Amino acid sequence: MSRERVEAFVNAYSALRAEVEKVIVGHAEIIDGVLTAMFAGGHVLLEGAPGLGKTLLVKTLAESLDLSFSRVQFTPDLMPSDIIGTQMLVDDSAGGKHLRFQTGPIFAHILLADEVNRATPKTQSALLEGMQEQSVTAGGVSRPLPRPFFVLATQNPIEMEGTYPLPEAQLDRFLFKLRVRYPTIADLNAILDRTTQSHSAEIQRVMDGAGVLGFRDLIREVPIATHVRDFATRIIMGTHPDWENAPAVTRRVVRYGASPRGAQSLVLGAKVRALTQGRFNVSAEDVRVLAAPALRHRIILNFAGESEGMDTDKLIAEILESVQGDVFQNVERMAV
To answer: CA 133, CA 139: separation in Å to the nearest integer?
Structure first.
């Protein structure tokens, strides 16, 4: 891993971020989370109330990249074939008929699954194979998806009537779950200035698919020290109530903890964050910052946690505080 490649990544990341910020105001943390997930090779679930710019963020990112883009508005009557595609009977030049596969919107580099929790579980599951395997099976044939393939799904946490919560297996396929907050007064004023005037920002395409894939390979070359890796794994184990060293709060409010996929998400995201700051190795701070986005959707609370209204972000913060002390005490003893 050369300094030139790292500098190229930092410059490309900054340029892409700048293009998105031409349109999106006040969501710096969300923008960083989306870009981090894309370069790490994962998918993102955006959760927030309507009108906070979730869809606009995804569309602006797509405009900044020289990649194909599809949007699916999820509704209760949507069918899996509306996403994957279907076999169609068509006429050929000889006057006969044959079946031809008509690709669905999933065959794009960037897929926006808008209000994904409005579709039935049967339709939601149509995304599972594509998100995990980078291919879909239709008509008994496995068909590869374009590379890179990046899913950004949105959901509204307020209106629950007529929605179908995502099953845990599908939630686990998302690298990050990002919560889109309401803007501040200053940000809201900036939004009004940008959206209620005749002038609109021009978005430039600053990266193509080959560039994204090349940087994904670079991310995996970033080294992580043993004690930082141990910090990440102990955070994951700290979410499991049956672990012998689990914090008291975990034993009290958690039913199931994060999967190994959560550990992979945490480490890959930390590697991207390290590179964005021009560093050649992962720090404990990288892991700490990305713990909530990587794990908040992977922890299942028990009855006590649900009845107390325990917020998973608060739970993760308490786990971090407990685990960090244990790990770095061990490091100090080893140094002595």
So the answer is: 17
Enumerate the domain spans of the chain: 3-75+106-215, 222-335
Model confidence at 332, pLDDT cuts 50, 70, 90, reads: very low
Stretch 223-247: mean pLDDT, rounded?
93
Fold of 3-75+106-215: Rossmann fold (3.40.50)
Distances (CA, A) of 290 to 33, 68, 74: 9, 28, 29
The two tokens of residue 146 are: 């374009």
Secondary structure of 75-101 in the HEC alphabet? CCCCCCHHHHEEEEEEECCCCCEEEEE
Distance between CA atoms of 138 and 117, rounded to whole angstroms? Answer: 23
Nearest one of 102, 99, 68 to 82, comparing CA atoms: 102
Please spell the DSSP secondary structure of 37-90, one letter per residue: HHHHT--EEEE--TTSSHHHHHHHHHHHEES-EEEEE--TT--THHHHEEEEEE
DSSP conformation class of 116: G
Cα separation of 212 and 41, whole Å?
9
Give strand pairing partners of 44. 152, 176
- Is residue 268 within 8 A of residue 219, CB to CB? The reply is yes
* Residue whose C-alpha is closest to residue 85's, from 133, 134, 139: 139
Q: What CATH topology corresponds to 222-335?
A: Helicase, Ruva Protein; domain 3 (1.10.8)
